[in-house]
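Sequence and fold
=================
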Amino acid sequence: MVNERICTSVTSTDFSECEQVLRSSQMAELRLDLMLLHTAQIQALLLHKIPTVVTCREGKYAQNERVNLLKFAIENGATFVDIEVESEESYRKTLVDFAKKHGCKVIISYHNFECTPSFAELKQIIAECRSMGADVVKLITTAHTAQDSARVLSLYESKENLVAFAMGEAGKITRLACLYLGAPFTYASMGTGKEAAPGQISAEKMGEVVKIVGNTQ
């Protein structure tokens, strides 16, 4: 059975716009590092009755601030917390343990903004993420060729709870194809010009394509 769930990456600093996106989405990723919202606003967004992923990438906030923001989101009903595979062990373990205690699932994520490693390396990364307590592994690379995209999609053979696709123009097809190979969900942008990553497709366009594919099966 194909899972057609589209997770919209919410990146806006406008709280009203964020609310509007959540009202019209199947699932949402709250990019707390980009949204710059107050805790009361984060809490209000988490009240929407859709699955949510909370993410706070390194850069804007100090590590202790990131931990506190993510803990707050977990306590207030986040469905998933996304933790980078390269994170410091103390940071990662604190959040994994906290999430497990609060019934929040853990995504351990790997992002490669330069290339797509070999198949053997990708399999090793998945195994490493699993060993860190991942309920879902998110593995994102950059595709420069169709072969890169094919290598990422080949990871779905007997791999459960894996979200793997490639960024860049050559990887666009993988963002949709992954749904038909076993990914529990895929990611899309709020709209054109609001992409959270290279090659990200808008949720509206992604939904239209999924519908067309569904009607042809």
